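User: quick one - fold this with zinc ion bound?
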Amino acid sequence: MKEYKIKPLLSGFFHMDWGNVCAPLLGGYVADLPIFFFLIEGNGEQIIVDTGFNPETTAGKFVFNPVPRKPDEEPLAVLKRNGVDPDSIKKVIITHLHHDHTGNMKLFKNAHFYVQEAELLETTWPVGTQAIGVAKEDWIDLVPRFRLLNGDFHFADGIDLILAPGHTAGHQAVMINTSKGKAILLGDAAYLLGGFAKRFPNRFADLIQKTVSVKHASIDFTAESAQKDIANVFGARFGGLFGPCILNPGQNVQSLNKLDLMADILLPSHDVAMLKWKVIPDDYDLFDEEVR
Ligand SMILES: [Zn+2]
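Assistant: Sure. Structure tokens for the protein plus zinc ion:
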């Protein structure tokens, strides 16, 4: 089976209260969450997964307090730095149509976009909390170039798309064969590696400290009260990591359980751990001995 490398590409940050995005119990904990999209490389091919964040759309301006973007986070600069000419990209996989994953789709003028049909249908007329997270202006003109999928899809030798609904109706994850096993790009099935705390039952505090940047609240994660909150939230069988931007939390738990069983390497879209992982699997390091 072919093997690939994965590069997380940073497109900016949200300044978020965890009470809004993760769990009411963590209200008041404020953290800057990175917004990643991804480059898959191997066998002379480059494939893009999601397209990051666009601060110019209505959703981009107002949803989840985006932090002003630095020049080196501009998508074109990020792509160039990683050896990508957007015009040469033929295939872009979209995990789901939330605005922080669709922000720069128009940069890829020659690409087809691999999207679940259920996602397009739901997002065309989004309801409730889904409506605030969608920026149709990012992609509505591109629908003729969508390749619509219905369920799991064998994308290429060593790359499979896995239907993983719950966060949105047609959310999908991307399973990629690497030299160190199967890596799964989780999309937003989990925002953070903490979504898989079950995998690291004795390392909650370590995991959270390793994967979360807290810049604007005076939180000591080692303090007893913080430990208790964290254990309450993350120990609850994935239960606490997800907030209002989830269409169907129960379905999302099922999707996470499925992905957890399939993955050797877990890669969510908003975890600061990936700021250090320039190339995966080479740089992947999450309690080495505990990664399966
Ligand atoms: Zn999302």
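One thing worth noting: The radius of gyration is 18 Å.
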